Fold this sequence. Notes:
This protein is of the alpha+beta class. The protein contains two helices and nine strands, in the order αβββββββββα.
Amino acid sequence: MQQSTQAKNSKLVKKLVVIVIGMFGFGFALVPLYDILCEVTGLNGKTNTIAASTENIRQNKSRTVTVEFMAITNKSMPWQFKPVERRIEVYPGEVKLVNFYAKNESINDLVGQAVPSVSPGRGASYFNKIECFCFNRQPLKAGAETLMPLTFYIDADLPDDINTLTLSYTMYDVTASVAGESSQSSQTGE
Length: 190
C-alpha cells in the first residue's frame, strides 16, 4: 500500500513539473505571439519599425486625412518632448515631413528611444514612415535640445471610414541599457 502511494505521488510530481515547465514555456512564447498577432491584425496600433519605400506611391487627392501627433515622456525620462505641429491635413500618398522637439532637462547626458503607436489600430498598417527618429536611439547631452524629423505618408488604400489617424510616441530613457551594451562589447573585444 505504501509503495502504491509513493508511486502515485511520484507520478503526480512528474505531471506537476511538466505543467510548470509548460507554463514557463508558454509565458516566454507570449511576447513573440503577441507581436505577430498585432502585426497581422493591426491591433495595438503598432507601426513598422523599418523604413517604408517611396517607390510606387499612389496619391489620392480626392480626400484628405487629418494626422494628429502626440508625444509622451515616460515618467523616468527628464526630457521635454513634443511635436512641433500637433495636427496636419494630408492627401493619402502625399509624403510629409514633420518635426518633434526634444530637450534634455537633466544635468546628465541621456539616450532616449521613442516607441510609436497609431490609433485607430486598424489604420496603423496604412501609416508608412520613410525616415523616423524612432528607428534609432537618440543621444542628447545635458541641457541640449534638438529637432527630430519624421517623414511619412498615408497609404492611398486607407479605408474611407478612417478620416483621422493619431500618431503617438512614448519616449523612454535607455541610457542604462546603452551603457550596459557598450561595457559588454568592450569586455568581449568587439
